[in-house]
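Task 17 of the worksheet. Students: predict the tertiary structure of the chain below and write it out as structure tokens. Keep your answer in the requested format; marks are given for formatting as well as content.
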Amino acid sequence: MKTTICTVDLETTGLNHDYHEIIQWAILPLTDKFEADTTIEPFNVRIKAQFPERADKKALEVNGLDITQGLSCFSDAKIHFEIWKAKYGIGQIEPLCQNAFFDLSFLRKYYNHDQFEEIFHTGRIRDTKIQAQAINDAFNLKEYIRPFRSTSLKAIAELHGIDYTGAHDALRDCEITAEAYQTEVKEPKSASWGDGRCKYCGKRLKASHAYVATLKENSKPGKEFFFDTFTCRKLEQAKPKYVSVFRLVEKEKAEDKKAETKIRT
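Model answer:
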């Protein structure tokens, strides 16, 4: 039995692990380079909700799952999980998650402490949400603009230029999470954003400036950008149509105007 790095993701009937249920459980085995291990079939099961009346309507709208479909209960999912592990010789799992606290809190409900620790190597948890927050914190300490606008999987995927299509399916989220982690490890945003200066013109980044640069890098054909007077000249050379100005831009303009007024008086 081998220890295997795996992306783990769940879809649930709500956010409260003491009240809501798991309705989809997916595990994607990875190589030591954090790529999907094509020699191992991913684990992916759907489970019927035992308490459908407890389901949060917003959660179901997001994941779009039918809570009446799937295995009859989570005990059946556990059996399928053990068969899958035995088939591929998987021992302990080193979990990689987007918000490990959320996913593992739900799974802990169905295992006692010793069982859970035997399945998951909790000393080697990897988390893209915490990873993004740590990078933002590092930039905040240097008073630079944060690379990640938030630590949601969507925001992380956007910054890395990762296709977010099909998200909120547990297996697809596993794929996105793995790609996000691999991208950040191989090409850290903390390195690509350097010392908080624009890699196009070398000037100190402002909120609007960084936001435009991000959209410029990761946008799809036909997508419009936010531009303003702080945008670097090199980006402006390929300026598309103007659109509504981002709130941070308006804030910065107001602050600059206020500063100019003080100087004049």
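Marker's comment: Residues 220-230, 238-252 have pLDDT under 50 and may be disordered. The beta strands are 2-12, 22-29, 43-46, 90-97, 126-127.
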